[in-house]
Amino acid sequence: MPSRVKAADVAGHFYPAQPDELAGMLERCLAPGPDPGIVPKAVVAPHAGYVYSGAVAGAAYRALAKRRGEIKRVLLFGPAHRMAFKGLAVLRVDAWLTPLGALATDMELLERALALPEVSAVDQPFLGEHSLEVHLPFIRQALGPVSVLPILVGGAAPETVAKTLEALWGGPDTAIVISSDLSHFLDYAAAGKRDAATSQAIERAEGDGLGGHDACGYVGIRGLLAHAKARDLRITALDVRNSGDTAGDKARVVGYGSYAFEYAHAARLKDRDRVALGVLARDSIRQGLDAGQPALPAIEPLPCTLRAQRNSFVTIAIDGKLRGCIGSLRPTRPLALDVCENAFRAAFADPRFPKLSPAEAERLSVSVSILSHPRPIAAASEDELVDRLRPDIDGLILGDGKRQALFLPSVWEGLPDARQFTRHLRHKAGFEPTAWPQGLKAWRFETESFAAA
Length: 453
Fold this sequence. Notes:
Radius of gyration: 24 Å
CATH superfamily of the largest domain: LigB-like
Distance between the termini: 65 Å
Number of helices: 15
CATH architecture of the largest domain: 3-Layer(aba) Sandwich
Shape: globular
Number of strands: 20
Helix content: 25-40%
Largest sheet: 9 strands, mixed
Strand content: 15-25%
């Protein structure tokens, strides 16, 4: 049976059709820049013409390129622009052509996708559609001749994309790309404001309010964000700009953003970023002593990993004994600001201790913990919770909607028995420690923790 291939419909329009010219343009888009130290499972990247959004998309593919050789296949979702249809669509072809060479369709993924009720094989929506095609040369250049499964998102709910991702998620050999631009045709200032709000929502994994005015691929983004919490993914905005920054005027612009999704349990800040956070925490404490307020740095010059929306805890100790510990239960601001605020509060606003004195500050040790997304633990009794906890790994939150308390994973050092761990936390929250309160709920989280410089 002769092979069937999908031609490149928008080559020569959205990107160069000549192989040498295209390869050169991609090399410029993928040129080495500041390395945030992120190794993603999934990315969100834009799909406009390369002259407009190529450099922004390049930030996502530079991060994925670190896994070249490990990634064998790419699952790609993009919004339908040219034809309305219900559900999700795939194309029964053997390969997708690019000027740099063909990418084979991943037949295993294709058959698994078609087994889902929301996915159908139809040709017409793909004709002339650019949201998937513009990513294929990037994939070929950054990852080599991997197999792909492009999926077009029509009239579908985010839950449909989430279910499809669940079925096709795969292991380390599978990468996921969500294709989307951000705001459309606002003036430069309005677009910047809206795209910043969208980026904050994405980094916080709080996408329920995102709609088509925020991102044309919002259905795919929200489907991926559902997995960010369930699978404990840390999200970082790598590059957010608009056509007024790249190759267009500023009267009516289109926004572009690249975002990386990495497993939180494996995510680690680069040493330089850890040192920078330590300096910021100590500066905030010093300014608290001098002026009674935290030191809050300018955010724009900082690397993207310190600008990202995160929640943290800062612990201070003197001679190995706890002297203060304050943190945030959910992300509401950039990590650098969160650490500065929490360092100040740990030193001067922890109700268990008096305010830090100048003499104590000379002997102070500081540590920072970056929290992952809390995930619920199904437990209706103390025994069930104890059985499900992972000592030395899990941080724990207990609450009933009125009262709530948290233990960092570091607390296991002093309370290695899981039953005592949970009882001390219930006592901290104001519950009777030996009884299981009605309506009590539990969440686990993990941390990236390190001593501050």
